[in-house]
């Protein structure tokens, strides 16, 4: 259909192919529901795929232009682009707007070799439970990070498929297993002396991605405020990983924090969402640090993915309808802090990524509509 091929945003890319040593020039276009490859000279459609078929994206850490698109049928496409992160932010936004909440960005990891079932299929309940137990009871000769990576490779990004409590005698055991896994993953440490910094950063990213999946479950979402010690340990972990100042780690960290603000599971309780927001957003120094991430990346003109994720974080806090569960004092504090950095946020309206422009617009609208007159003028 015409509307499926009418693109909202287009990027010049170089497509690498196994049968060709020379990259091919392409226009990578994103429409309402499709990702489209066009010939840049004739504008003819080369191929089109539904955004719902996109499984995940591999973002090369060594080459700032390369990325891989992995589809649900196992197909992999390699591209390079000068505006890679802006392109990826647009892709993620487009896919999620189509209902594809499994789309995510990772650093190069051998997900395919760790899959227990083909792409496009989900594990059954027993297999998911087994993966959780492997994180707690590590097989001989392996490390917990190996089990974390296997868990990430097989469990959807938007959480366990069978995380809801079931009726019966063992109804509580599933939630307890998830909470035990949370505690184990949060406390996971790495032997800094034996591993290079690059490998450590990839392991930390995997750790944060695992926490994202666990917090997406109902038991994990509730555990943040109801289980003693998890909030404090998570806070320590977040502070330590953000000190590394690595884009892919920052992105994984903010994505994980977004899971605590907006539940990913069905039949959630608004009271728990309110408690999570109160616990996560009540520390002003923590909020200052997150907002400084936006300032730093905007100033350096880097980190489009980090900026987009932070704008989602702010949207879940101050933008309707998500703001209805944000405590009033926290809401006012965040609006004030964002308003003080208003000039930085206005710079985002000139960003090449429309996703970031849209996110900045939502936040600025909230400031204009909800804050006091003096802050709205800033």
Q: Your description of this structure?
A:
- It is built from 17 helices and eight strands.
- The mean pLDDT is 88.
- Helix 12 runs parallel beside helix 14 and helix 13 (304-318) runs parallel beside helix 16.
- It folds into three domains: 2-98, PH-domain like (Roll), CATH 2.30.29; 108-269, no CATH class; 283-377, no CATH class.
- It has helices at 2-5, 84-97, 111-114, 125-136, 144-154, 171-186, 197-216, 218-226, 230-242, 247-261, 270-281, 284-300, 304-318, 328-340, 342-347, 354-370, 373-376, and strands spanning 7-17, 20-31, 34-38, 45-50, 54-59, 66-71, 76-80, 105-106.
- The termini are far apart.
- Strands 4-3-2-1-7-6-5-8 form an eight-stranded mixed beta sheet.
- The chain is globular and about 60 Å long.
- 53% of the residues lie in helices and 14% in strands.
- It is an alpha+beta fold.
Summarize the model shown.
Residues 1-377 form the DnaJ homologue subfamily C GRV2/DNAJC13 N-terminal domain. The chain is an alpha+beta fold and 378 residues long.
């Amino acid at each position: 259909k015409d509307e499926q091929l009418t693109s909202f945003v287009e990027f010049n890319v170089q497509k690498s192919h196994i049968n060709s040593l020379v990259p091919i020039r392409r226009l990578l276009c994103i429409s309402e529901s499709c990702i489209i490859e066009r010939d840049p000279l004739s504008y003819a459609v080369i191929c089109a795929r539904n955004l719902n078929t996109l499984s995940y994206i591999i973002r090369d850490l060594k080459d700032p232009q390369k990325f891989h698109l992995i589809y649900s049928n196992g197909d992999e496409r390699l591209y390079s682009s000068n505006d890679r992160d802006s392109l990826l932010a647009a892709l993620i936004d487009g896919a999620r707007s189509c209902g594809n909440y499994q789309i995510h960005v990772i650093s190069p990891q051998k997900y395919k070799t760790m899959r227990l079932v083909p792409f496009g299929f989900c594990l059954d309940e027993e297999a998911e439970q087994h993966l959780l137990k492997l994180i707690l009871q590590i097989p001989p000769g392996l490390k917990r990070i190996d089990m974390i990576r296997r868990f990430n490779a097989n469990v959807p990004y938007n959480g366990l498929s069978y995380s809801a409590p079931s009726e019966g005698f063992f109804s509580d055991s599933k939630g307890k297993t998830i909470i035990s896994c949370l505690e184990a993953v949060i406390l996971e440490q790495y032997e800094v002396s034996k591993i290079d910094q690059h490998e450590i950063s990839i392991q930390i990213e995997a750790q944060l991605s695992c926490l994202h999946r666990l917090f997406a479950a109902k038991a994990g979402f509730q555990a943040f405020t109801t289980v003693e010690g998890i909030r404090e340990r998570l806070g320590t972990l977040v502070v330590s990983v953000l000190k590394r100042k690595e884009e892919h780690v920052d992105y994984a960290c903010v994505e994980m924090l977004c899971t605590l603000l907006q539940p990913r599971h069905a039949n959630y309780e608004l009271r728990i969402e309110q408690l999570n927001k109160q616990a996560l957003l009540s520390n002003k120094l923590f909020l200052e640090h997150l907002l400084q991430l936006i300032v730093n990346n905007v100033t350096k003109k880097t980190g489009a993915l980090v900026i987009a994720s932070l704008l989602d974080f702010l949207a879940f806090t101050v933008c309707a309808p998500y703001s209805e569960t944000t405590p009033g004092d926290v809401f006012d504090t965040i609006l004030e802090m964002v308003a003080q950095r208003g000039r930085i946020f206005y710079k985002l309206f000139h960003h090449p990524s429309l996703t970031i422009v849209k996110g900045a617009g939502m936040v600025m609208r909230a400031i204009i509509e909800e804050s006091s007159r003096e802050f709205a003028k800033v």
